[in-house]
Sequence to fold (175 residues):
Amino acid sequence: MAPNCAPGRGNFELEYWSLLMSHRMEIRRAESEDAATLTEIAFAAKRHWGYPEQWIQGWKEVLTIQPEFIASNETYVACLDGQTVGFYALVNGKDRASLEHLWVLPSAMGQGVGRVLFNHAVQRAKALGVVAIDIESDPNAEKFYEQMGARRVGVNVTDLEGQSRALPVLIYDCT
Fold:
């Protein structure tokens, strides 16, 4: 269990504790051996949005989580009743971090898993001295990040099979 998640330490901690306990959820540091499971979660979550399979395969490199990536970055998993149902990864910079991954199994969506993971990421970032978290979001996840307190600061436009795709860029202020 993450530090600072006991009851009585403010609204965030009470909400966090409640979500963890009500769902029998555990957040733990990912291990290199989790790579295949995390990859499956990333692919399943991306497919949830109905993207064409050729796009999914085009994102194979980004969605495949390597053991080395886990070992060298702040990567945490959410386990619900003993099953890994989501994860996040923060890539730490000098005073900023990038939220490179935050994925939840479709069967666990809507149960607070993403919210708990995001809040955990914020607490880890603060513990590391990070003042802001940069997020390049899937368009379908932008509203979630805004509800969590991130604000849109731009857009990255990419080309995917001849189609323009706008990826929202958000920032979460950790101060």
Remarks:
- The radius of gyration is 16 Å.
- The longest strand covers residues 163-173.
